[in-house]
């Protein structure tokens, strides 16, 4: 029997359910004896199956079946609710078993480091792996500039308070922007200037005016799959923003936490247009993997490295070694790459279904944003509808969305914009969810008109 036949035999047992996720496979010697073949044949078969991410090895224990993406039956079938509100990763497609394997291996590899304080900047071995991973996103840097953080929000929060070489004080942010950024601005009492992000992107003349006259220290931007609008900049727009930053001595904080989901390899981060330190690149693994990991990275230029690490030390001493080690193993094994390919496929399908439903079902008076990621989009309600009232009516229909009003600075507050995410909505329920939104929208408009003419 050749190793390919052994592989087919094991894969058949997986397909029939005899070998379930997490189950330990027979030892190499026992399987060789059972199948009447050489030990080397089994070793080769197990090695190839591990490369295909069908099985994984645990030191001094053996080989186990990897958890595959389960069939994704909607939670709506049990609760009746359609959840456009939650914006975490698809729970039914998360690599729980794979990551459990990586955690177990990390305990073995880093058992000594777990009982000491680790490097503030992050494990060197992980930073080496992260620098390698970033190359695929067109971010070319060295491990010495990579800082591991407890989620990208930690990096954002620290950078708001730190002095920059331009000796400027204020920040500029897209409007709207995600709630955690708004809260960081409020908490640190930072002076922030907003610039509206529209269906056509930013008004570059307005951005130049802000950079020129408002003492801007840095511009914070989510360049791909913006939260909450879902907007992604073109390469032309990214380059223009970098040129303006260079002209007016403004730094850029580029938050690319959903960049892994972008299937277009021709899209460049802003960092690619100025890797000197003008653009500080940050990303997170929360939205594409497990939010509970609280792992992210920041590519920090030399001029701010010491102050950044000092601020991080004051914040949390170091990011937990166990999760760092597990992420390193997950990246090295190739599991992350396979997982991201699945996620891209899932979210791209969901995004297409959502856009189709918008086009076919929403009334012309409702404006909506587009996104290829499936994570975020917004709907601007027709006059005179208000988000808070609209959301309460949707709840009665068991459809949940978010009020985007809290994602604006005070000078930009909107009361008629809702945010939707389909990351945790089953494909079969997307159309019906939008159908309910459209129906409630029309009913409330008609009710308002009737009251007006009584």
Structure notes:
Helix 6 crosses helix 12 and helix 13 packs parallel to helix 15. Helix 8 links the parallel strand 5 and strand 6. About 2% of the residues have low confidence. The termini are far apart. The protein is α/β, with parallel strands linked by helices. A 7-stranded mixed sheet has the order 4-10-9-8-7-5-6, sandwiched between helices. A 4-stranded antiparallel sheet has the order 11-12-15-14, with helices on one face. Strands 1-2 form a two-stranded antiparallel ribbon. Helix content is 44%, strand content 13%. It has 3 domains: 66 residues, Arc Repressor Mutant, subunit A; 234 residues, Aspartate Aminotransferase, domain 2 (3-Layer(aba) Sandwich); 116 residues, Aspartate Aminotransferase, domain 1 (Alpha-Beta Complex). It holds the Pfam family Aminotran_1_2. It comes from Paenibacillus glucanolyticus. This is GntR family transcriptional regulator.
